[in-house]
Fold:
Amino acid sequence: MSIVHLLTEGVPSFLLWLGKTSLMASVVVIVILGIKTLLRDRLPVKWQYALWLVLIMRLILPWAPESSFSLYNLFPKTTNSSTETMFTDVGDYEITSSSLLTEDEEMNGRNHSTGDVAPVEDMVGEDTVGVENAGVRQQQALLLSEIPWLYVSVFLVWVLGVSILAFQLWKMNRKFIRAHIQNGIKEDAHTLQYLKECKKSMGIKRAVKLKVTDAVEGPALIGVFRPQILLPASVEEEFSEKELKYIFLHELVHYKRKDILVNWVMLFLLVVHWFNPVLWYAYRRMREDQELSCDHKAISYVKGSEVKEYGYTIIKLLTKRSNIPNSHLLFTANFSSDKLQIKRRIMMITKFRRKSILWSALGLVVVATFMLVALTNAKADSKYAGLEREIIEMTKQNASLLDNVDSSIRATAEESIHEMMRHLGKPLPLIKVETVSETNQVFFEFKGDGTGRNYIWVNEDTGNLERAIMSLDLPIERLEPGLVERAEHTLQEKGYESVAEFDIPVHRHIKYDIKGLEHYTGGETLGIQTVLKQGKSTEVIFTNGEVYRISFKLPVNKVSDVKIEAARQALSLLNEDVLQTDVTDVFFSYDNFGANQSLMLRFGEAGDVFMHPDRNEIQGIRDGSIPVTGTVGYSKPRLSYGDEQFRREFSYLAEQLFHIDLKGYDLSRVTKSPGSFTFEKSGERTVHMTINPYGEIIGVSRDEG
Structure:
């Protein structure tokens, strides 16, 4: 993946995921606080703590199943190459559609997105493959102008925040370890015996070291892989044997429940979501419930008559230490001396009673139910579940032909077909199955609606999908949620002033190739194109869920007289009649994939001029007075010109139109598109020229830069 592609696609996608995840986690926090407020002391503290573990799982899970019980159902659903030529003659609509349609159009003889209009390669003999070398070189330069700098800036701020917080955490914990562990003194034999007895009573066999140090003010547990209990030196002198055991029980409960690991994970997640104050608040509340739950569990290891003594020990311990600044950022499980926290712990201890099985069951039900609603995503629209049922029914109808497929690969082949039908949005009846031994494939042909071919090829040995070409008209209701709204928003963003009411049906075109679709999708295996149209002059094309191209008609009065005159003078280089002709139509197009945008000014039958919307920069011209018929597949002999003669013919136009000198440019003929020529030079934009079979220049353009 190139740096440019990473900035234009990866950064916005990551920020979208980060924001969505953080928002969903915030919802979970609010629900947890609501549950705790509603149930209060009726919910055992261990289950209150368990609720926060669900929050951690929500933040970690990269994927979650959909469920009709998900709490997110309560919220509105949101949406979840080569250089393409600009020349075409489409009557009332001039902007060409995506090259993703090209192969299917060649087989079907029709360009769906522009009605009866042939694409540019049929019109002026210029195949997009002809400028592929230039397009590859120009692609990165074009994309640079469309890098979403706002997203990049936000991403850099996020990285800065992550870096600062991560450094602070590393610095604090490194300082803590050096000061508190390295300065440890030899443990007292009696103290070690108390620790050993507590471990035995709790069934802990792993070694847990004890460090007695003057550098800490209160007991703490540190270390996930090599756990150590840090004990202030003064504690051995001021606390009795029984009180020391209570302290050890508390810290060993932290160890047994892996609270250190939980704190590590949560701090890591806070580094990622440092910008979310809700999660910071949630972390503090989680640490509080962690301590309460730890107290509750530790008390369960003492006799009923000793509960108050345990409480007195905690009070005595907390009153002898001051609160350590930012102690919650340490990778430890330690006592908190926050006054409100102390009060809450004392109340919990004094009210301690061993919960009945009924209350424990209630806690389990609450947490399990919360996991169900918090760890699942909103249910997709029911119509997509309907699509699955349609696919199953169609498979039954196709069974007689599918029987011709080898039984060893049939199941895989059917799933390959289902995958394409899901992308297409509608299952199709099967009309042909045959084995193609030359390519080691099984070929499937489906009956469509006449708007294109519907073919699928799978591997003869495995049944895995290898290639597919599919086209179909769909009702708008079958489109992905939010796609129409995104199309309307994009049009308005680019200056479309009318209300978009897209015609029904919408066209869906799919290409799949295991070798990748370099020419269409930049190397991806799957290319899904959706074409939404309003009349003949407004079109929005999505490729793989992203806006690929938009085009619409503009009022002529939206174009300045200066721009119109510049366009007229440019076209007059090919057709002097334009000097007496007014602009009849103006079209705007934007190609998101190549970061190209263009205004096409039509001077009636005199021809068209393509200009940059914001600058009086000519992008190309087309002479409408010269017939194009015969450019592709013509029967009359082509006039024979040498390369130097072509260069002389075109040098004047290039200088006048683009203010460039073609000296030093390499001239090449586009073999797949007779009549098309390119002038290329390293570091410069490629220039194109198109002639008809009689040697007359009908089109001139250059790549965007």
In short: Residues 78-140, 630-639 have pLDDT under 50 and may be disordered. The two ends are 21 Å apart (CA to CA). The chain is about 45% helix and 20% strand. The longest helix spans residues 3-39.
